[in-house]
Design a protein that fits this description.
The protein has ten helices and two strands; from the N terminus they run H-H-H-H-H-H-H-H-E-E-H-H. It is mainly alpha-helical. It is globular and about 70 Å long. The protein starts with about 20 loop residues before the first helix and ends with a helix. This is Phosphate transport system permease protein.
Length: about 325
C-alpha cells in the first residue's frame, strides 16, 4: 500500500521551533516606534510651548490697569478685531466651499482623465501662490473691478444690513477682503475634497448607478455621505488658514476698530492678524504685550474651531465609514 507524502514548504518553520523575529527586525521596530512616539509627543510639546509663550507675555496686558495700556482697555480694544477675524473668515468660507466642492466633483467624476489631471495640477499650483501676491491682486485688480458691482448691490439691496451704508470709493472693503481670502483657501479645500471623493468605494457608486440613479443622484447617495467628514475637515482647514491670514487682509482692507456687519463701507473691522502686522513694528512696552495678548485670543479662536471640527467629524465617522 502506497502512502502519499505532502511536499514540504521550504519556507515553513521546522516543527518544534518557534518563529522568532530577527534581531534586525526587532531593532528596526524599536527605532520606528521610538521615532513615531517622539514625533507625536513633539506636536504636543510645541503646542504647549506656544501656549505658554503667549500666556506669559500676554499676562502683563491682561492684568495691568487699563489706563496704562497704550491701546486702552484690552477686551474693548480686541473685541472688534476678534469679530472682524471671524466675520471675514466665515464670509470667505461661505463663498469658497460650494465652489471648491463643485471643482472637486468635476475633477473626480465628470472631467476626462487628461483634463482632470491638468486641473488638479493647476489647483495644487494655486495653493503655492504667496499671500502677498493675492494682496497685490486684490488691491490693484479686484478692488477697482468690483466697485460698480458694489454700487448696484447697495442700490438694489440696501435694505439688507450687510449691503447698507455708504459704498467705498476705493473698493477696499470687508467683502473684497473676504473674496481674496476665499480665493486663497479655495485650492486647499478643493484638493482635499477631490482626494476624499476619489476614495469613495466603487461598489457604492456602481450599486447606485445599477439601480437606475443618474450621476448626480449617485453623488448624492454615495459620494456625499461617504465624504462628508472629509468635506468638513477641508472646510475647517480652510477656515484656519483664513483666520490666520495676515498680509492679504492688511493690504486689501481699509481697517477700523468698530464692529459692523456692513460689507461695502470703507471702514470694515480689521482682523487680529492684520492688526498685529500693522502695529507691531511701532509697538513698545505694554503695547507689545497687548498685541501678543490679542494673538492669544486668535490662538484660542483657532483652537476652538479645530476642536469643534473634530467633534463634528467624530459624530459622522460611524455613519460614513470613515475613521
Amino acid at each position: 500500500m502506497s502512502t502519499s507524502v505532502e511536499p514540504r514548504d521550504p519556507q515553513a518553520t521546522p516543527e518544534g521551533e518557534a518563529s522568532q523575529p530577527t534581531s534586525v527586525g526587532r531593532g528596526g521596530e524599536l527605532v520606528f516606534s521610538t521615532i513615531s512616539t517622539v514625533s507625536g509627543l513633539s506636536i504636543l510639546a510645541i503646542l504647549a510651548a506656544v501656549a505658554f509663550f503667549l500666556v506669559l507675555l500676554a499676562a502683563p496686558a491682561l492684568t495691568s490697569d487699563p489706563a496704562d495700556l497704550p491701546y486702552g482697555e484690552f477686551w474693548q480694544w480686541v473685541a472688534p478685531f476678534a469679530f472682524g477675524t471671524v466675520w471675514a473668515a466665515v464670509l470667505a468660507l461661505l463663498m469658497a466651499v460650494p465652489v471648491a466642492i463643485g471643482i472637486a466633483l468635476f475633477i473626480s467624476h465628470y472631467a476626462p482623465r487628461k483634463l482632470a489631471n491638468g486641473l488638479g495640477y493647476i489647483v495644487d499650483l494655486l495653493a503655492a501662490v504667496p499671500s502677498v501676491v493675492f494682496g497685490l491682486w486684490g488691491i490693484n485688480a479686484l478692488a477697482p473691478a468690483v466697485m460698480p458691482v458694489y454700487g448696484w448691490l447697495n442700490k438694489a439691496f440696501g435694505w439688507f444690513p450687510p449691503f447698507a451704508g455708504g459704498v467705498s470709493g476705493t473698493g477696499r472693503t470687508m467683502l473684497t477682503a473676504a473674496i481674496v481670502l476665499a480665493v486663497m483657501v479655495l485650492p486647499i479645500i478643493t484638493a482635499l475634497c477631490r482626494e476624499v471623493f476619489l476614495q469613495t468605494p466603487k461598489l457604492h457608486e456602481e450599486a447606485s448607478l445599477a439601480l437606475g440613479a443618474t450621476r448626480w443622484e449617485m453623488i448624492k447617495q454615495a459620494v456625499f455621505p461617504f465624504g462628508m467628514p472629509g468635506i468638513i475637515s477641508a472646510a475647517m482647514l480652510g477656515l484656519g488658514r483664513a483666520l490666520g491670514e495676515t498680509m492679504a487682509v492688511a493690504m486689501v482692507l481699509s481697517p477700523s476698530d468698530q464692529i459692523s456687519f456692513e460689507l461695502l463701507t470703507p471702514n470694515g473691522p480689521n482682523t487680529i492678524a492684520a492688526n498685529i502686522a500693522l502695529n507691531f513694528p511701532e509697538a513698545f512696552g505694554l503695547g507689545i504685550n497687548q498685541l501678543i495678548a490679542s494673538g492669544l485670543v486668535l490662538f484660542v479662536i483657532t483652537l476652538a474651531v479645530n476642536m469643534a471640527a473634530r467633534a463634528i467629524i467624530a459624530s459622522r465617522a460611524e455613519f460614513s465609514g470613515a475613521n
